[in-house]
Write a structure and sequence with these properties.
Elements (H helix, E strand, L loop, with lengths): L1 E6 L4 E6 L16 E5 L5 E5 L2 E5 L3 E5 L5 E5 L4 E5 L28 E3 L2 H18 L6 H23 L9 H16 L6 H7 L4 H9 L5 H19 L4 H7 L5 H12 L3 H11 L1
Helix pairs in contact: 1-2, 3-6, 6-8, 6-9, 7-8
């Protein structure tokens, strides 16, 4: 079962279906669309960025468009996919946007376990989604966006509760980290200095470093981690040389990437590639 909504004036796309929507990911690739996978009575097996995951029954998982995703198996799944044009309240509603908690970071894979009551709510919401797909009128797009907003808001609340967020208190440190990650995602292929991102956030590099230290990380580590993650993805999923990859992630000299990569993985890019071949 698949339903697809398209809005030609904005190029918006929303897809709702079952595991058949994931069949094109039998070989790993980056999703073109933001993706939610909800399991019912059966667990699903997937691989994200070469790491296998088991999604337990009655859970929700969120995927961004930058991760490499492979669908191994699963049945009785509910899948939602959409692009930024359909839903991405980036500027005025950050908690439930494409930069919000569900899509925060590049190595974080949010999985939400659903209670019996929560399962009932999501099943009811899904029925309303399907009903709205069948209602072709001038406000259909707005209704579908409202339903997706509801889905994301409920999921975000559950994720915040799971991860110990206090909803009544705004966590400015987490907000800053999220804003920093969003900027890194946008610029990491060209900009590797903390000062560049500090300027964008109207903070001093020292303020950023002090704030990140309280979160047991550093702004430079976040930048380097994103660069290394991209290099890993390109080494795993493309035939590009180390020199080509270095240039793609902003290094004129491949030796600079090699040193950074080895610092994070204990392997040079070429040794990492050789290791991959040994597992094939």
């Amino acid at each position: 079962m698949q339903e697809t909504f398209t809005e030609f004036t904005t190029n918006a796309i929303l897809k709702i279906g079952d595991q058949s929507l994931l069949e094109t990911y039998k070989e790993p690739r980056q999703p073109d669309l933001y993706t939610f996978i909800r399991t019912n009575d059966f667990k699903a097996e997937i691989v994200v960025d070469s790491i296998p995951y088991s999604i337990e029954p009655n859970s929700i998982l969120a995927l961004t468009t930058v991760q490499y995703f492979q669908f191994i198996e699963g049945e009785d799944l509910v899948v939602y996919q959409f692009n930024r044009e359909f839903y991405c309240i980036k500027d005025h509603d950050q908690e439930v946007s494409c930069a919000g908690l569900l899509f925060f970071g590049n190595v974080h894979i949010p999985v939400i376990d659903l209670s019996v009551d929560q399962q009932r709510k999501f099943k009811t919401l899904h029925e309303v989604f399907i009903d709205e797909f069948e209602t072709k009128d001038t406000i259909q797009a707005e209704m579908l966006r409202m339903l997706m907003a509801r889905f994301i808001i409920i999921s975000t609340r559950l994720l915040k509760a799971k991860e110990g967020f206090v909803e009544a208190t705004k966590n400015t440190k987490v907000d800053l980290l999220r804003a920093f990650n969003l900027l890194v995602e946008e610029h990491f292929k060209k900009e590797h200095s903390v000062s560049f991102y500090a300027d964008k956030l109207y903070k001093s590099p020292k303020t950023l470093s002090n704030t990140f230290a309280k979160l047991n990380t550093s702004p430079l580590h976040v930048i380097h981690e994103r660069v290394v993650l991209e290099a890993k993805r390109l080494l795993i999923y493309t035939d590009k040389t180390a020199k080509e990859i270095a240039y793609e992630v902003g290094f004129e000299d491949s030796s600079h990437l090699s040193r950074l990569f080895k610092k994070h993985t204990q392997l040079s890019p070429s040794d990492f590639k050789k290791q991959l071949k040994n597992f094939v």
